[in-house]
Amino acid sequence: MHVAHLSLADFRSYARAEVPLDPGVTVFVGPNGHGKTNLVEAVGYLATLGSHRVASDAPLVRLGAERSVVRAQVVHGDRQQLVELEINPGRANRARINRSSQVRPRDVLGILRSVLFAPEDLALVKGDPGERRRFLDDLATARTPRLAGVRADYERVLKQRNTLLKSAALARRHGSRAAAGPGGRTGGADLSTLDVWDQHLARAGAELLAQRLDLVAALQPMADKAYDQLAPGGGPVGLEYRGSIGDERMAGATGREDLYGRLLEALGEARKQEIERGVTLVGPHRDDLVLKLGPLPAKGYASHGESWSYALALRLASYELLCSDGREPVLVLDDVFAELDSRRRERLAELVAPGEQVLVTAAVDDDVPGVLVGTRFAVQDGTVERA
Ligand SMILES: Nc1ncnc2c1ncn2[C@@H]1O[C@H](COP(=O)(O)OP(=O)(O)OP(=O)(O)O)[C@@H](O)[C@H]1O
Ligand SMILES: [Mg+2]
């Protein structure tokens, strides 16, 4: 697929931008801080409903404006769809497809698929488990948009369950332990509902977990191959899912029903500790994906260059996986070439060059390898002009 037109209104530094795009390679070149990343960030936002740079929406809205609108004409085969998102920080975002009446933002997921490479990707390897969970969940959602609803359910249940546990923990600490009566009331927090919350959490959690496990299994050979293409002989790469329910309980888990049972069991076991600490201790929100390079985990062991290659390999594997589902995503390479040595630069460029649409940003033209010839746009002082 490709984006044929991108429009921004009050997005980041842009009051307005209208950018007609072609399939093939497009390179945005311009000085630091002039708005190159802002453009491709908008593409990523339409694909994932999130930014690769910030966790909240507020920074996406132009200073002084109330809301942003990002819009893209997406072409897939002989199908064209216009997707539009209105970003309202602190309030619900709004979405439209083909200018029709409003749909939920999550209904636009899956129309535009993209894989975005950026310097921030280093955090996939070196950062907290949350970075890797988001990587897995975003990719799983790109494959199965329905998962956005499951993720929202899980977050909601988790929040409510945590509130319940927290008030129970507070009550305990304030010495009202004696108040825990037969109904399970612990100083004001009605713990008798905890069983129901456990079931809700395990239900959504099992679905999320099943998708993640499928995804990791599918990604593993692709990530290994991609790493070898970028850094021949440097692997092997191993992706190991580490569940908070424990390795033993994770072993041999298959399918949603099975995982549901295992999660419930683990919640049952953790309950005493959870009531003491006032927080949910098991579930997909506490899991990690351990990235192994050879026998060692990349985090804490791999060199800077190896970590970079690893992050790129994960993105390349994501690209291959989405292609294998039959819908090739738009590739976005934000400022990645400047970070790479010349050999890896060439290899990466060769691997992405055949993509249906490749959007590249660079501050220096010479950083972009020669195989990525294509349309050039100059980005300067908030204007985007075909060079
Ligand atoms: N919400 C906002 N309102 C106004 N300006 C913003 C907003 N968010 C970011 N900016 C401005 O946008 C500019 C950054 O743009 P961007 O990150 O796209 O630069 P870039 O061209 O990619 O630069 P580099 O080459 O350094 O990566 C900064 O000057 C920043 O102040
Ligand atoms: Mg940039």
From TrEMBL:
InterPro entries: DNA-binding_RecF (IPR001238), DNA-binding_RecF_CS (IPR018078), P-loop_NTPase (IPR027417), RecF/RecN/SMC_N (IPR003395), RecF_2 (IPR042174). Keywords: ATP-binding, Cytoplasm, DNA damage, DNA repair, DNA replication, DNA-binding, Nucleotide-binding, SOS response. It comes from the Bacteria. One of its GO terms (cellular component) is cytoplasm. It is found in: Cytoplasm. GO terms for molecular function: ATP binding; single-stranded DNA binding. Residues 3-363 form the RecF/RecN/SMC N-terminal domain. Its main location: cytoplasm. Signal peptide: none annotated. GO terms for biological process: DNA replication; DNA synthesis involved in DNA repair; double-strand break repair; SOS response. ATP binds at residues 30-37. Belongs to the RecF family. The RecF protein is involved in DNA metabolism; it is required for DNA replication and normal SOS inducibility. RecF binds preferentially to single-stranded, linear DNA. It also seems to bind ATP. HAMAP family: RecF. This is DNA replication and repair protein RecF. It comes from Actinacidiphila yanglinensis.
